[in-house]
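Record format v2
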Amino acid sequence: MVNVAVIVKLEPDFSEGNVSYNPDGTLNRAETKSILGPHSAIACNAAFYTKITYGSRISIGTMGPPIADSALKQAQELTDADEMNLYSDRIFAGADTLATAEVLRSGIVKMLDGNKIDIVFSGHRASDGETGQTGPQTAWKLGYTFLGNVIEVNIDLERNYVIVKRLVMLQGFDGIVEEVEAPLPVFITVDPSYSPNYRTIYQRLAFAKYRKEAIARANNYKQFLKIYDSKSLGVDPKFVGLPGSPTIVYRVEKIPKAKASRKAQLIEGQDIDAIKSIVPKLRPIVS
Amino acid sequence: METFDVAIVGGGSTGLAALKHLSDLGKQAVLIEAGPQVGTKNVSGGILYSKRPRNGKVHNVEDVYGSDFEASAPLERHISKYILHATSGNKIFTLDLTPAHEYQTNFGYSVLLNKLNSWFASVASESAEKQGGGIVTGVHVRDIQWSNENKTLIHTDELEEFQVKAIIAADGVNSEIAYLTGARQKFSPNEVYQGVKVVIRLPEETIEERFEIDTSEGAAHLFAGDVTLNHIGGGFIYTNRDTLSLGAVYHYESLFSKPTEPSTLVNALIQNPFVSELIKDEVITIDIDRELSKEEQLRKRFALTKLVKTFEELRYSCYSSSGRTRLIDSGKFKNFEEMKAKLDSIRQELIEKYNTKFVTNYVELEYSAKLVPDGKRCRMKKPYHRNILFVGDAAGRGIFIGPRIEGLNVGIDDAVRASLAISRSIDKNNFAEDYMGQYYTSLVEQSPYTRDMKEIDKEYLKIFLESTKSIPKEIVGSRYGFIFKIMSSGKLRGLAVGIANLLGYEKILPLVESEETYVQVPIEVALKLGKKIDPSYTPVPPSIEERVARLRYNDDPISHIIVREPESEFLRKLVVLCPTRCYYHEDNKVMLQHEGCIECGSCAKGTEWRHPRGEKGVIFNYG
Amino acid sequence: MVTESFSNNSGGKYRNLYVVIEHIEGKLVPVSLEMLGEARRLMDDFNQRYQESERVVAVVLGYKVQDLCQQLISYGADVVVYAENKELEYSRNTIDTKVIAQISRDAGLAKQISPEYIPPYIKPRYMFFAADSIGRHLSSTVLAELESGLASDINKLVISDIDFRHEHKTKGQTIRYERTLEMYRPDFSGFLWTTILCLDNKNPEIMRDYHPQGCSIIPGVFNAIEPDIAREGLILQYKPTIDPEDLKVKVLNKQMLKKKIDFDGHRIIVSMGRGIKDDPEQNVKLIEQFARLLDAEIGISLPLSKRLYQLSDSINSKYMIPERVIGTSGSKVAPSFYIATGIHGAVQHIAGMKESEFVVAINPDENAPIKDESDLFINGRMEDVLPIIIEELQKLTPIVSSHME
């Protein structure tokens, strides 16, 4: 039995028909419904894989406003989680990744009645701004080995090791698949290309069975939900929220390059001079 | 290696019924479905019947799923009106065939297979789990092999191989299992019908008003005459809860002899003046100023989509009694007037703020196609191969008798018979052809449905002819007038049917299923007796490209169809007959672009045809 | 009104710009040189403006990396600190983080880097990482260890003195933060630019200093400087302490994926469609020549991958392959320039190229849907139009061979 945590994030539903923008181009958060972030969902799939393949207890954690519990419900449907934790406090507002990591660290050590978590899964990044720093920073604060861009997870239960595959993308390379082993505990961020590979009928049937159980549980998800504020979490207010954030958003502006939609300028095939005129346009790129 | 008692290949309503029944018989069965979820690959016209033949017994859906089936399954409407229309130009002549529809019938419901099969799946998998079985989706069976020790091994594209004792092939009209085991030939155009269907959206109460039904009723309308564009077959509209299933089903051979694009045939029906009034709706057209900056366009579009979504949801709830109750119970609205006022205000906002236009047209949700086996012509005489039993469409078992088109109920009946045969074999541990296969064949032969595929039922014919009494026989020219006269007299009818049955269906089919029956006679009737319809608009159907664009796909870069003979006559016809125009001419060869394929199998006979790999390909939302 | 000035130059405690270099298989990842180029420009300006002599310090971890050091100097580093160890051959987050933190905090090293500054030294002033699969995570853990702020995916950087007022951060007062790195990052919508600051801490209750100001930089946005092999610099070897416990994390194997086609590495993509049909072999060769002149990658529309035309085997196997397909069932591309030759513009194709910055279409059919996705539409056949452009392009290329007779 492995103790597994999943850190998820509630994100705006960017799909057409649901998202709403202000006239200045910023997201209208009040008018936009929140859902479980797509990368968080992928992390959930990885956690569910460990449940089906190795047997695991799963705890979900998220930091966010009280309405974030709808994301937790979705996460439970995907993972059949045994427990869900919402870290919610006014003083958490304005947190950057370091301050968020502080809250999550404090939350993870309290999961599953304080039993040590063996693997933490989180999404690669959030779609609404945060950019893949929270995971590794939380890992660092926990003292867990961090493994990013993971595309396959195997657990060696006898040695208490994970053996994972990571997809490393570097400029000028088509991708490198790296196989890494590490002793538990580990913190894994799951690559967007991850998809669990269930290769036997029994795994597939177990998947269906647990998924059904998960949906039933999620219908009563509040029963599994614990809500923490800064006090019950035991965090130092100096290290969370705005005061605990080294960085701040100073300014938001429109990126000037944005241009009107395409409207083709027409050049007739016989107009040789006009055709030649495209060459100067290419020139700065070529040289 | 993993080992199971039974594998059922294909999660359509037939395969699911087999899973349910086998499990109820205490046997372990695993159903393998290639679609990402059950129901995403299934298409039906769709009426699901329950029957009570006077001679013999059929296994009905409620026998498999329990007596509360009608109360709990997601059925659309109880079909209480069965109408046949003959069309010619703007004239239409209408016959009430409800007595023929009710003949030996417990009930008939319009259904949408995505929803219904999902329900079947949830019930069946619950029973299956108790026996250590269940449903596995997203897995495509690639091959079946028998080892030297006579073990049956199933190879799939997605899983490690596994072993079973027996197999039920419920993989549909384009049964790959039939092809790869050589159990039967691919169906030729003469043996199947090609059906193309669109799902059209309409508010619940608009449907009830136009089809003159109440909320507990449903209507089925059939069409013959000039809407067939001179092909053998016809059109149909079935009322669902808040959608309509509208389609065209034509003898594939008739289409081959005069190739016409399937979408053109559906469009002909849609544009028939009588039909266009039935489907008429108010359609919102969005026009965003392309001169605006890109992000401004995007913002507008997002805002508009959201508003339109709210408008449509409210409108659909507002014009449905259950929807209204829901809205009032939720506390959002006090009464209908409030909803109406809200609708008007959004409408105003759409027009004034966003320059949205409301035009008269109709709303198409989904385009689909399938081949329908004509059991008279193509049912497998030996529906087995080694320890594999073929059921439903896979065995070519469908009923096609004039206006009577049935498949779902036949498949369910087969599924129960196959389950009984396999169950007996498991108990005796004997899966030999002469034990299991032949026993299953004998059970199928006893089915009244098989009888319907073999001979004319003179009682049915009598009821059918009763319904046509209002047509003066002298209008029906040529040989048909004569046949009508014979058939109308009880004595002569008995004699004629006796002779016909003696001759066999094969001999009389060309006579019965001819252009004259489906095209000329109806046109003549409509012209002479029909009512004139003045259409208030002309519907504009979407182009093929738009229809394909609205469908959901999980594209597989590897094509599931391979063209081996790009210069064959068969494939040349497919350039026209493929419902999604996947074939095109290039330098005197026929080329395939498999993206957009809706997996109907219309091209299967002339290609190397497989179903796409697990989870790949088209995903139907309605089916 | 500036009421208080907050200097980031408190006696050289925080100094220099550290650039964490990435390399693989003995070669530098291009973004490393791009970061150095931007670091060089920023620090030249910084030193002039503030009368300082702070350094651009390249930090390299690895095994057998000495050869790279000189190269880093020629690309703009003043100092290269390299940690050479067999255990550092492959990047491993925990070990790398600890080594970089050691290097960042090492006062002795800082003294070697800039002897003219008087101690104490605490940490670097600024720090750059690459925003890729290595740097994104490494920057996070390093800055968590150093307890400072980090902005990711940066595509513009400015150093300035900022007068800043914030209800909580500055208790409503305007404070001047000197030598602050303004870190610009495009936001998720792609329309907005957010500037992130890592401001020094002035709350005495919090024992943190918020240096270095860290960021990860998007590969491909900044330009490397022209390498100068004559440039001089200091190369220092660093002997890290490695905790044997951390060695339990092992890279078991590495597998390099190989795509034949590199759409992302080219700023121009030339694609072809069925418009090659009149003379396929010659037209493909024409496109080949055109693409070579532009250093462009070649894409195709889906139908071509089905080998519609009689073409030589060499051309078929090189070009008419699924890997080159642009569209829903192939690659999605977004080059600076997309040149669609003889492409009609099926919806599937458009979906794969519509994010391109500037689109030119060459097509004899003025009603082809590609026109609606083009910025420039040349109404003609490729065999007529391309030679004109090729000729003009050839005029641009410097003629080196003229004196060689």
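Residues 103 and 555 of chain B are 44 Å apart (CA to CA).
The interface with chain C takes residues 295, 545, 549, 555, 557, 586-587, 591-593, 595 of chain B (CB under 8 Å).
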